[in-house]
Amino acid sequence: MKLKPIALLFSIVALIQSSTYALEPSKTINLTKETEFYLLKNRGISNNLFVIESKFEKKFFEECKKKLSMFDTVKRAIVEYFNDNYKSEQQSMIKSLSNEENLNKFFHMKTYGDGQAAKWLSSLDKSDTSALGLTEPLPDKFKKEKLPDFLRYAFAESFQYRFNKNIEIGEIQINQALNNLATRRIAKLLNLSELIVKTKYVKIMPPDKLGIIMDCAPGMSFKDFSLLKNKGVNPSLQRNLSNLMILDAICSQRDRAGGIGNLFVQLDANGNAVSITGFDNDMSFDKFENLKEKYATLPPVILSNNKIALPYMDKSLANKILSLNYEDIYSCLKDLLPNAMIDAVAHRLQQIQEAIKNSIEGNESFLLEPGDWNEKTMMNETTVDNETYFKTFIKKLN
Questions:
Q1: Average pLDDT of span 135-146
Q2: Kindly report the CA angle at 48 between 47 and 50, in degrees rounded to 5?
Q3: In degrees rounded to 5, what are phi and psi of residue 126?
Q4: Are 260 and 396 in contact (CB under 8 A)?
Q5: 88, 197, 259, 387: which has the fewest C-beta neighbours closer than 10 Å?
């Protein structure tokens, strides 16, 4: 698959067009008194997730907020998080952050790794908050009991601001939503819909909020699965993790933690892992194109000999990938991603197409039907030299 001249034209247009899209919500969801809408406590670092729960179903909502200035972003976070509570503490924090130096400290803190907020959160002494940019007095009890979780909330808000750096002040910060929607689109294009949670762009009423609503992924986390006493792995899991690894490479998804993160594991009646469903696909779709290199948590998908970095591949997926061209990719993503990003998707796909052809040549056992995955194929993949999602899954399990 070679990029046609029209693709080059799209790339040039992408340099001058706005990357903000007037994406219309697919539906309006009217919350009733019987529906609970609340902030998820155990959430990620890149966004603040809300739960929409009724007696019939449970879904997750990620809001796309209007982009404000740095100061107004943190002020909004303070007011939204605490609402009508802790009024004096709110004013103290806002006063601290009206200082530019303090604002920069607070806005660029990190709640993970070696970040200032991470160090403060892990310390026993919570009295000194100056490293966070909060220099005005705050009650000790507030700093110990309320401030830690707020820092995580505020970090997600500042992360969204930075992730949407191409979005102008006053416009909707939609990049993370678009990445989730685009991942779902590519999964459907490849007939892999079951591997990615259903995701839609919606409006929530009331309150009046725009964002994506996502199904609750079935199953359990890898961590919970690993703690089970009686557990096993079905060969179908190997097939699905292999498919997910290829899907993530096409989408440049670098936040799956080697096939055990941001996914849930489904079990059969005997406690065997049979499939997975991926979620939290914010960190996808950029200009990364060298699939022979490791990219964050995404392992190399193509070997130095230009073959697929998997000992086996699902035959139906391989045939589907080989059938695609640039127009298919453009039609799938044109209303979601800038054309430069679409070109990158097409280039990654092209590399995988060539690697599939190279892998098939002289290797009749490379492409497998659903019934061909077995104990032998699982054992063989755990012994390959390179990293794969399935190999990591088994390694972390033992």
A1: 98
A2: 135
A3: -105, 15
A4: yes
A5: 88
Alpha carbon 220 to chain centroid, angstroms: 17
Please report, for residues 4, 98, 309, 350, 353, the alpha-carbon distance to residue 323 in angstroms, rounded to integers and kept in the order given.
16, 56, 20, 11, 9
* Residue 258 reports pLDDT greater than 90: no
Give the bridge partners for 29, in sequence order: 204
344 touches 288 (CB < 8 A)? yes
Q: How far apart are alpha carbons 208 and 210 in whole angstroms?
A: 7
Q: Do you know the residue count of the chain?
A: 398
Q: Assess whether pLDDT exceeds 60 at residue 123.
A: yes
307-335 residue pLDDT tens: 999 999 999 999 999 999 999 999 999 99
pLDDT at residue 233 in the model? 97
Backbone φ, ψ for residue 316 (5° rounding): -65, -35
Asked if residue 347 lies in contact with residue 382, where contact means CB atoms within 8 angstroms, the answer is no
CA–CA separation, 149 and 307 (whole Å) = 46
Question: Could you report the per-residue pLDDT of 354-381, keeping only the tens digit for each?
Answer: 999 999 999 999 999 999 999 999 999 9
Per-residue pLDDT reduced to its tens digit, 159-187: 999 999 999 999 999 999 999 999 999 99
User: 193-216 burial, b for 16+ CB within 10 Å, e for fewer?
Assistant: eebbbebbbbbbeeeebbbbbbbb
SS3 199: strand
Q: Residue 342 to residues 10, 21, 124, 186, 297: CA-CA distances in angstroms?
A: 9, 15, 48, 11, 22
| Dihedral angle sign, alpha carbons of residues 29, 33, 35, 36 | positive
pLDDT at 21: 54
Angle between helices 339-360 and 5-16 (to 10 degrees): 140
CA–CA distance, 343 with 327 (Å, rounded to integer):
11
Which residue carries 């998707």 as its tokens? 345
Q: Distance (Å, rounded) from C-alpha 381 to C-alpha 388? A: 8
In this model, does residue 12 exceed pLDDT 50? no
